[in-house]
């Protein structure tokens, strides 16, 4: 669908903070530990090489947790789905999150730049498969029938996904909003600078100012489930959608 010239082009980047009220822990709010692990123990290619059992176990636990009955999208995820309905292809939703809460909240198009928990990837062909159960070094890959499956997650030191599409959208953005992300991890933390250089109005929506806060034109401070629906409703009524 072509974009509507009468509406602004919006790029939204979300991080762990948008899913915090859905019961998923953020990365840096718990003494720097992610579910009791240092990130280098579980989220690097080196960790997978040295201790694959731990890495499989860790992501199997995250995948199971995501599918528990008490983990559900919150009002912020739902508001972004409403924004997508109103703005169509003028909106690009990029997430650093590997959960599926945007999709369950109703968003149709979500760019998971750090991969997905509910997916497995063949380390040889790079083919991906929807995957909701546990898997490990004994699980046969559906494409090559060998034991080559790895979590479909972008680990530290690996290239995030969809970078070409994201940079293209940032270069055309009129509005850039970062929601629930601390601004510690690049390249995502650099998106605000790129959007600003393209002339976008930049907004940070977070529980507290992140490390790149000075680069934003506007700050919305508070829990995502309050500030995001408010902002979305204002934008929708501004454009009478
Ligand atoms: P962080 O844990 O670094 O930051 C989460 C941010 O959300 C913090 O700034 C919190 O203040 C904020 N926050 C917490 N609760 C909130 C709430 N209810 N409403 C709004 N904001 C809230 O997470 P990310 O910035 O997403 O990468 O981390 C980026 C990447 O680092 C992750 O994608 C992950 C990690 O290592 C990979 O796994 C590849």
From TrEMBL:
Residues at which NAD(+) binds: 15-34, 96-99, 180-182, 224
Cited InterPro entries: DHS-like_NAD/FAD-binding_dom (IPR029035), NAD-dep_sirtuin_deacylases (IPR050134), Sirtuin (IPR003000), Sirtuin_cat_small_dom_sf (IPR026591), Sirtuin_class_III (IPR027546), Ssirtuin_cat_dom (IPR026590)
Segments forming domain Deacetylase sirtuin-type: 1-238
Enzyme Commission code: 2.3.1.286
Keywords: Cytoplasm, Metal-binding, NAD, Transferase, Zinc
Necessary cofactors: Zn(2+)
Cofactor note: Binds 1 zinc ion per subunit.
Domain of life of the organism encoding this protein: Bacteria
GO molecular function: histone deacetylase activity, NAD-dependent; NAD+ binding; protein-malonyllysine demalonylase activity; protein-succinyllysine desuccinylase activity; zinc ion binding
Principal subcellular localization: cytoplasm
GO CC, alphabetical: cytoplasm
Record flagged with keyword Zinc: yes
The UniProt record lists the keyword Ion transport: no
One Pfam family, short name: SIR2
Catalytic activity of the protein: N(6)-succinyl-L-lysyl-[protein] + NAD(+) + H2O = 2''-O-succinyl-ADP-D-ribose + nicotinamide + L-lysyl-[protein]; N(6)-acetyl-L-lysyl-[protein] + NAD(+) + H2O = 2''-O-acetyl-ADP-D-ribose + nicotinamide + L-lysyl-[protein]
Binding site for Zn(2+): 122, 141
Ligand binding (substrate): 59, 62
Active site location: 114 (proton acceptor)
Localisation: Cytoplasm
Protein family: Belongs to the sirtuin family. Class III subfamily.
Record text about domains: 2 residues (Tyr-59 and Arg-62) present in a large hydrophobic pocket are probably involved in substrate specificity. They are important for desuccinylation activity, but dispensable for deacetylation activity.
Function: NAD-dependent lysine deacetylase and desuccinylase that specifically removes acetyl and succinyl groups on target proteins. Modulates the activities of several proteins which are inactive in their acylated form.
Name of this protein: NAD-dependent protein deacylase
Species name: Alteromonas marina
Lineage, top ranks: Bacteria, Pseudomonadati, Pseudomonadota, Gammaproteobacteria, Alteromonadales
The encoding gene: cobB
């Amino acid at each position: 669908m072509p974009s509507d010239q009468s509406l602004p082009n919006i790029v939204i980047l979300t991080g762990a903070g948008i899913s915090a009220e859905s019961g998923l822990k953020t990365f840096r709010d718990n003494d720097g530990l992610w579910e009791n692990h240092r990130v280098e123990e579980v989220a690097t290619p080196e960790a997978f090489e040295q201790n694959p059992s731990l890495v499989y176990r860790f992501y199997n636990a995250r995948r199971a947790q995501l599918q528990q009955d008490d983990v559900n999208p919150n009002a912020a995820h739902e508001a972004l789905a409403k924004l997508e309905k109103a703005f169509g292809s003028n909106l690009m939703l990029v997430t650093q999150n590997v959960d599926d809460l945007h999709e369950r909240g109703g968003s149709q198009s979500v760019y998971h730049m750090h991969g997905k928990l509910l997916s497995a990837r063949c380390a040889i062909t790079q083919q991906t498969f929807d995957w909701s159960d546990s898997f490990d070094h004994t699980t046969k890959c559906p494409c090559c029938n060998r034991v080559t499956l790895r979590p479909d997650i972008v680990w530290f030191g690996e290239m995030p996904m969809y970078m070409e599409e994201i940079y293209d959208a940032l270069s055309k953005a009129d509005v850039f909003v970062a929601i629930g992300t601390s601004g510690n991890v690049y390249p995502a933390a650099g998106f605000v600078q790129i959007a600003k250089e393209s002339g976008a109005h930049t907004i940070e929506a977070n529980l507290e100012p992140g490390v790149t806060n000075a680069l934003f034109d506007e700050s919305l401070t508070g829990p995502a489930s309050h500030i995001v629906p408010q902002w979305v409703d204002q934008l929708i009524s501004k454009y009478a959608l």
